[in-house]
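Lab channel / #folding
Pinned by the channel admin:
"Please post every new chain as: sequence first, then the structure tokens as a reply. Keep commentary short and put observations after the output so the thread stays searchable."

First post following the new format, from NK:
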Amino acid sequence: MHLTLRFLGDIEESVGHAILNAAAEVAETIPPFRVSARGLGCFPGPHKPSVVWLGVHAEGDGLFRLQKAVESAARTAGLERERRSFKPHLTLGRIKPPASTLSWTDLAAAHASFDVGAWMVRDVALFASELHPAGARYTRLAAVSLGNTSLGNTGLGKTSLGNDSLGTAE
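Reply from TO:
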């Protein structure tokens, strides 16, 4: 399970390094922080759901500072600006059409206050995602610790990174 700060798409290894290094510069100034997961919802909305998510709420501004740094680094690396606003969430699953919108509307409303609990965010990681019929498979490629200037496992692999994202994971 991870919280995506920025979906990067199919990128080259050098772009992944550049974005992770830019994130590291900001990450070293942000101490680990607490987040909680609560509230069920759907993207793009309950009337035409395609993703079911759990909302993420962070203490302080660390999460949003990290996301802004990653977005800025992605733009500097030549990626297009993310058009959607950042809505911290954990993806629980994807819905394939046709889906009954009434049931999802009711489900989201009934579980709007569903609370999973809280945990500490201690690092930012670069993930590769591979889509399979059974669902996505995520591989952690590299990470930087919050409040620490040293890079963690920086071996980003010997091939292009594929469909990657920068996010946090517990």
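NK: The longest strand covers residues 33-43.
TO: also worth noting, The chain has three helices and eight strands.
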